[in-house]
Amino acid sequence: MRIVIVTGISGAGKSTALKMLEDAGYFCVDNLPVPLLPKFMEMLILPGSEYTKVGLGIDIRSSQKFGQLRETLETLRKKDVKFEILFLDASDEALIKRYKETRRSHPLAGDGRVDKGIDEERRRTIFLKQQADYIIDTSQMLTRELRSEILKIFVENKNYKNLYVTILSFGFKYGIPGDADLVFDVRFLPNPYYIQDLRPMSGNDAPVRDYVMSSETARKFLDKLVDMVQFLIPNYVAEGKNQLVIGIGCTGGKHRSVTLANALYYALEQEEGYGLKIEHRDIEKDARVKGI
């Protein structure tokens, strides 16, 4: 029997995660009232129960009864009821944007501001995040990336640590990414922009990649960057960090930064213990600006 309690911050993707578990063969119940949780759990673990994989959605919508959840979970543990907690989180900026796009109100905001509701929900759910077996930050995630993480944890049973790493290339002339935790400037590397045949291409094209990486400086920089990131990630995991954005920037975000971001991604993609994805924020901007 595997019981997963799916919870977290409203707007972070709890309903989506439950649907993904359901698609993976879990029997799922959303918005289960907290007072019903003990009886429901006892029913699930009865000998001969037809359910072997269950997902339970519990969140702040339980209103005043949500305050009983901490005590209820402690009681279940004392009765040796086994369960796991999946906590979905996202940055305030990502949550506010999602609420604006969907024109929905936060369950704790009432007629007030969404950010006030988010602050209050974080205060009320902090104990759940502290007890969580898995924390997934969906701030930068696409739906398919969340599905991949859900399947990895709850279907493939792979080891999982609560860190998701995004490698992000960008152009300094378009601004440093506001959510970047680490920023590396690669404008010191040979610039393909000044090679007429390479200018229209990007770091995703082999000629540009080969030109940049033909530099001994670029190769040494990559070696040192990989070594540092591999050192930092386990320490971030131990600290409890669940989202790491590594920004790599050049002037326009099209050639050198894309090349180095790709190289770092390929060096890290075989590592286990954290999720990994790559984004090229500004790779198309020069073409749009110039009307190409």
Structural class determined from secondary elements? alpha/beta
Give the CA-CA distance, first to last residue.
57 Å
> What's the name of the CATH homologous superfamily of the largest domain?
P-loop containing nucleotide triphosphate hydrolases
Q: Report the C-alpha radius of gyration, rounded.
A: 23 Å
Q: Main sheet, how many strands, which sense, barrel?
A: 5 strands, parallel
> What order do the SSEs take from the amino end to the carboxyl end, as H and E?
EHEHEHEHHEHEEHHEHEH
Described by the principal axes of the CA atoms, the overall outline is: elongated
The helix content is: 40-55%
Low-confidence stretches: none
Mean pLDDT: 88
Protein name: RNase adapter RapZ
Domain RapZ-like N-terminal: 1-157
Binding site for ATP: 8-15
Organism: Sellimonas intestinalis
